[in-house]
Amino acid sequence: MRNLLFTLMAVIGICFTAGAQTKAQLTANISTPDVACAACETRITSMLKRYDGVLAVKVYYKRGITQVKYLTDRVNIETIKTAIANAGYDADNVTKNEDAYKRLPKTCKKFEDGGGHPKPRPKAETPVADSVAVN
Fold first, then answer.
1. Fewer C-beta within 10 Å: the chain N or C terminus?
2. High-pLDDT (> 70) share of the chain, %
């Protein structure tokens, strides 16, 4: 009986201890409008993977969003945004590091800076129909 009570107390103690060790995880969607190709995606992913606490990085370059899953007790969102900016890309309200942007390959720069990103499409104007008189 004594051993059974001791075993039961040990199991309950382990359960409470395991619950206390769960880390707070957050998933942040960061606006990265300058990211437009797979090379940019690779550059940002490898930069963020260096940080302790970053669990997963997914760059949706066609939508201009970078999704980062991280542990809040090891890294914060401002550090992540600064890392993206230091790689040469805008990240939400943190502007890109100009020196890092200049070091990017030509394919990763904006069109207006002589880069290989496609020229932004002009906004489509609504066509005006010609008036035709019907007799």
1. C
2. 69
